[in-house]
Design brief:
The complex is a heterodimer of chains A (about 110) and B (about 120).
Chain A: E1 4-7, E2 10-13, E3 19-25, E4 33-38, E5 45-49, E6 53-54, E7 62-67, E8 70-75, E9 85-90, E10 97-98, E11 102-106
Parallel strand pairs in A: 2-11
Antiparallel strand pairs in A: 1-3, 3-8, 4-5, 4-9, 5-6, 7-8, 9-10, 9-11
Chain B: E1 3-7, E2 11-12, E3 18-25, E4 35-41, E5 48-54, E6 59-61, E7 69-74, E8 79-84, E9 93-102, E10 107-114, E11 118-122
Parallel strand pairs in B: 2-11
Antiparallel strand pairs in B: 1-3, 3-8, 4-5, 4-9, 5-6, 7-8, 9-10, 9-11
Classes of the chains: A mainly beta (about 110), B mainly beta (about 120).
Chain lengths: ~110, ~120
C-alpha cells in the first residue's frame, strides 16, 4: 500500500494567515492526489483533485501543488470556516489511501 | 442533486456481522463510470477506505479487510450494501458511503458526495 504522511499533524493559526500543509507519499503517484476538509461531526468534503484542480464551489483561497511524492495544500488567507481537519488521498494505486490528517486550530 | 444516506445498526456485538445500507438519489449505478464506496473513521482517527463497487459490477476491497467484506448493489432500489463479518471493538467507527467523482470526460476514485455517516459501536 502507498503510505501517506501529512505534516504537521496540528497547526495553530490566526484568521488571515497563510497556511501550508504537506503530504508525502511512499512512492510517486503522478497527479492522482486529492485534498478533503472535514469539520467536526461532518463528512469530508473534497476541495481539490488531480493535485491542483479546485472542486466546483470551493473558494479560490485554497490551492494545491506538487508532483511525484510531495504535495501541498495552501490556504492563502485563513477564514473562520477553515478551522477543520484536512486529509490528503492518493488514487493512483489501489488500495486508495488517506493521510492521517492535519488539524488546523485557532491560535 | 446527489444525496447518500447510510443506515444500519448502531451497536453490534463482537463476532457478529455488520450490514450497512447506503441509499442514494440523484444518480444511477447503472450509468457508465459511476461507483459507490465505503470509507470508515474510528473516533478521533483518520479515514480508511474499505470497498467500492462500480456500475459494471466490478468490486474493489481494502486488501487488509478483504476476507471480511462484501459489497453489493441493487440498482433498482438505488442501494449499496456493505457487510463486514467477525466484528471486533477495533471496528468501532463512523461508516460513510460516498459517490465516485465523474467529470464530463472521465471518472476517478475521488469521493465528491458523502453520506452523513453512521456510528457503529462494537461492544458486548
Amino acid at each position: 500500500d502507498i503510505q501517506m504522511t501529512q505534516s504537521p499533524s496540528t497547526l495553530s493559526a490566526s484568521v488571515g494567515d497563510r497556511v501550508t500543509i504537506t503530504c508525502r507519499t511512499s512512492q510517486s503517484i503522478s497527479r492522482w492526489l486529492a485534498w478533503y476538509q472535514q469539520r467536526p461531526g461532518k463528512a469530508p468534503k473534497v476541495l481539490i483533485y488531480e493535485v491542483s484542480t479546485l472542486q466546483s464551489g470551493v473558494p479560490s483561497r485554497f490551492s494545491g501543488s506538487g508532483s511525484g511524492a510531495e504535495f501541498t495544500l495552501t490556504i492563502s488567507s485563513l477564514q473562520p470556516d477553515d478551522f477543520a481537519t484536512y486529509y490528503c488521498q492518493q488514487y493512483d494505486t489501489y488500495p486508495w489511501t488517506f493521510g492521517q490528517g492535519t488539524k488546523v486550530e485557532i491560535k | 442533486q446527489i444525496t447518500l444516506k447510510e443506515s444500519g445498526p448502531t451497536l453490534v456485538k463482537p463476532t457478529q456481522t455488520l450490514t450497512l445500507t447506503c441509499t442514494f438519489s440523484g444518480f444511477s449505478l447503472s450509468t457508465s463510470g459511476v461507483g459507490v464506496g465505503w470509507i470508515r473513521q474510528p473516533p478521533g482517527k483518520a479515514l480508511e477506505w474499505l470497498a467500492l463497487i462500480y456500475w459494471d459490477d466490478d468490486e474493489r476491497y481494502s486488501p487488509s479487510l478483504r476476507s471480511r467484506l462484501t459489497i453489493t448493489k441493487d440498482t433498482s432500489k438505488n442501494q449499496v450494501v456493505l457487510t463486514m463479518t467477525n466484528m471486533a471493538p477495533v471496528d468501532t467507527a463512523t461508516y460513510y458511503c460516498a459517490h465516485r467523482y465523474c467529470s464530463t470526460t472521465s471518472c476517478s476514485e475521488v469521493f465528491d458526495y458523502w453520506g452523513q455517516g453512521t456510528l457503529v459501536t462494537v461492544s458486548s
